[in-house]
Amino acid sequence: MITIDSIHKSFGTTEVLKSVSLEVNAGEVVCLIGPSGSGKSTVLRCINGLERYDGGAITINGRQVDADSRDIHDLRTRVGMVFQRFNLFPHRSVVENVMEGPVYVKHEPRSEARKQAIELLEKVGLGDKVDAYPQQLSGGQQQRVAIARALAMRPDAILFDEPTSALDPELVGDVLTVMRDLAREGMTMVVVTHEMSFAKEVADRVCFLYGGQIVEEGNARALLTEPQHERTQDFLRRVL
Ligand code: ADP
Ligand code: MG
């Protein structure tokens, strides 16, 4: 579904992605791990066209991702993104946040969008927070709203960029549970995370990024328990 073919990316004279290649099949969960600054967020941002890449190619369902093209907005409706900071609209209620995309981008009728938003909020365990405002919710609840908001666009895939890194430890579990459920339902997911136990349990594959390159990629359990590359071994020793 997602094919990344030797993409390069520089900011000024700094090359931050050096020939990154990755394939994600429909229904697969791929986790990206690696030290801070290794290029994980940049990979995700290139996939949904928030950042342009300088060389190589990314295609989604056979269509090339081009941040400058006119159908980049259409592409973004098909690939959801969930960030470390939830970016909810503070002056809109929870259900309005979830309805936003379907109503304003997809021009769905409000009543339909609201009905669907409520179902999604129930799915992420927030059926009782429909009319609350973001600041009345915990970080973990806000992140689950952000996931419901991404799902509301009925995306083909969702990209997660450290979705639990900004949360208090006791709130992480509920967010990971929602993500685990999505994976079980067959959602295609690319997840940047430091939650190694989540990666081990849920990911089909794990890629270790270092210095803008994927230095090791493989079956999640194998890579996390028996990393082959010295850089991976060193990284995992630090985080586990
Ligand atoms: P990670 O998510 O793995 O921490 P990033 O993809 O955010 O890494 O960043 C990779 C490298 O690119 C870092 O060295 C970072 O400083 C640099 N970088 C990221 N975004 C920008 C930007 N907009 N301008 C300049 N440098 C950037
Ligand atoms: Mg990052």
Automatic annotation (TrEMBL):
<dbReference type="InterPro" id="IPR017871">
    <property type="entry name" value="ABC_transporter-like_CS"/>
</dbReference>
<dbReference type="InterPro" id="IPR027417">
    <property type="entry name" value="P-loop_NTPase"/>
</dbReference>
<comment type="similarity">
    <text>Belongs to the ABC transporter superfamily.</text>
</comment>
<dbReference type="GO" id="GO:0005886">
    <property type="term" value="C:plasma membrane"/>
</dbReference>
<feature type="domain" description="ABC transporter">
    <location>
        <begin position="2"/>
        <end position="236"/>
    </location>
</feature>
<dbReference type="GO" id="GO:0015424">
    <property type="term" value="F:ABC-type amino acid transporter activity"/>
</dbReference>
<dbReference type="InterPro" id="IPR050086">
    <property type="entry name" value="MetN_ABC_transporter-like"/>
</dbReference>
<keyword id="KW-0813">Transport</keyword>
<dbReference type="GO" id="GO:0005524">
    <property type="term" value="F:ATP binding"/>
</dbReference>
<keyword id="KW-0067">ATP-binding</keyword>
<dbReference type="InterPro" id="IPR003439">
    <property type="entry name" value="ABC_transporter-like_ATP-bd"/>
</dbReference>
<keyword id="KW-0472">Membrane</keyword>
<dbReference type="InterPro" id="IPR030679">
    <property type="entry name" value="ABC_ATPase_HisP-typ"/>
</dbReference>
<dbReference type="Pfam" id="PF00005">
    <property type="entry name" value="ABC_tran"/>
</dbReference>
<protein>
    <submittedName>
        <fullName>Amino acid ABC transporter ATP-binding protein</fullName>
    </submittedName>
</protein>
<keyword id="KW-0029">Amino-acid transport</keyword>
<dbReference type="InterPro" id="IPR003593">
    <property type="entry name" value="AAA+_ATPase"/>
</dbReference>
<keyword id="KW-0547">Nucleotide-binding</keyword>
<keyword id="KW-1003">Cell membrane</keyword>
<dbReference type="GO" id="GO:0016887">
    <property type="term" value="F:ATP hydrolysis activity"/>
</dbReference>
